[in-house]
Prior knowledge:
By secondary structure, the protein is mainly alpha-helical. It has a domain at 50-162. 73% of the residues lie in helices and 0% in strands. It has helices at residues 4-31, 34-46, 50-85, 91-110, 118-139. The longest helix is centred in the middle third of the chain and has 36 residues, at 50-85. The chain starts with a helix and ends in a 24-residue tail after the last helix. Mean pLDDT is 77; it is low at 27-31 and 150-163.
Amino acid sequence: MISKKVLIPALVISIVAAGAIFKVSYVEAVSSSPKTGLIQYLAQKLGIDQTKVQTAVDEYHTQQQTNRQKENTENYTVYLDGLVKQGKITDSQKTALLAKHTELQSTRQTTDWSTKTPSERQALIDQEKAKLEEWAKQQGIDVSYLRFGFGGGNKGNRGMMHE
């Protein structure tokens, strides 16, 4: 029979160890991105190095983002072509709008939104919206023709800030 002097410390050590393991698992789960668990699972299940799975997921994400941006630009070009045909904007205004659209897509890609608080994000968006509206006025473009996701233009087309 195991004595109480051995059993009680062993039980305490087991409980402390289990708590530590749970805490480490919980912290890893909370601190990692939602994809991390999936990437770990796939790597283990398929017997592939986790960095290879991560690379593949990142490449897929980048490809999807590029495709969405391309489709968005194509749709915006069709929209602008219609405005030119209706005489609402000129060809040079269309060119300026497409250049600004491309510029804002690039800015969006280089901005790390995850490090900003909701109020910082909103302040940045408001600042960019004001600059965009001023730019449009300087170009002689009605703000309602903007479709960059700052609230202007057609609400059905959410624009590049909300892809």
